[in-house]
Amino acid sequence: MVESDQGEVDVRLLDVNAPESDECFHRESLNYMTERLKGRTVTLDTDQDVDQFGRVLAYVWDQNQNVNLDMVQRGLAIATTPDTGVGFLIEEEEAFAAGIGLWAHDACGSGPIPNVRVLAVDQYGETVVIRNDETTTVDLSQWTIRDESSRHRYSISRGTELEPGASLTIRSDDPEWDPGSGPIWNNDGDMALLLDASGRVVDRWRY
């Protein structure tokens, strides 16, 4: 919420998605944004487009710093596709490689993260493939696969185990998707996030 000459304005940050209230690192992301901008005078770079909730879509500038980009650089939000040319996807890749913020192995849990990889997303065939690159069987109970928007989530059933070197193909018509009964993957670009039972990022695939 931003106070303006026209009154209070609800703002949705362009080109980023911060963790939802039920997702890993939500509290850290929210706290940082609140403390960073509380009482500050900011500039909204917007064309007055609004989302489905009536929020103004904008880049938020605090002096000369793009706050949207800052959130991605700190691992407090993910970038969205398609790439607008501002550099959000590049900065996200650097944050991911450095294990910063929500990309950290201890973001919402402790202990080693199994080497389970997202091998590919077929946005046209509507499938995602994951593979166990460990030398031991991995229990995938309550793990999750979600898309970039976090609107679609797949909950892996309890008791699901993946043997060493084995792969698991998940189709968009599988009943464990919420919501189901429709395409999951955006043909213009998307990301598959593989999360363990605590919500930590195990791997991701961008296209």
Which structural class do you get from the secondary structure elements? alpha+beta
- Count of DSSP H/I helices: 3
The level 1 CATH classification of the largest domain is Mainly Beta
Number of domains: 2
Major β-sheet profile = 5 strands, antiparallel
What is the general shape? globular
Average of per-residue pLDDT values: 93
Low-confidence stretches: none
The strand order across the widest sheet is: 16-13-12-17-18
CATH topology category name of the largest domain: OB fold (Dihydrolipoamide Acetyltransferase, E2P)
Rg value = 18 Å
Termini separation (Å)?
Answer: 33 Å
The total beta strand count reads: 18
| Helix/strand order | EEEEHEEEHEHEEEEEEEEEE
- Residue share in β-strands: 25-35%
CATH architecture of the largest domain: Beta Barrel
Percent helix = 10-25%
A few lines on this structure:
The chain is α+β, with helices and mostly antiparallel strands and 207 residues long. It has helices spanning 26-37, 67-73, 88-98; strands at 2-4, 7-9, 11-13, 16-17, 43-45, 56-62, 65-66, 78-79, 116-122, 127-132, 138-139, 144-146, 153-155, 161-162, 167-171, 177-178, 191-195, 201-206.
List the helices and strands and how they pair.
Layout: E1 2-4, E2 7-9, E3 11-13, E4 16-17, H1 26-37, E5 43-45, E6 56-62, E7 65-66, H2 67-73, E8 78-79, H3 88-98, E9 116-122, E10 127-132, E11 138-139, E12 144-146, E13 153-155, E14 161-162, E15 167-171, E16 177-178, E17 191-195, E18 201-206
Parallel strand pairs: 3-6
Antiparallel strand pairs: 1-2, 4-8, 5-6, 6-7, 9-10, 10-15, 11-14, 12-13, 12-17, 13-16, 17-18
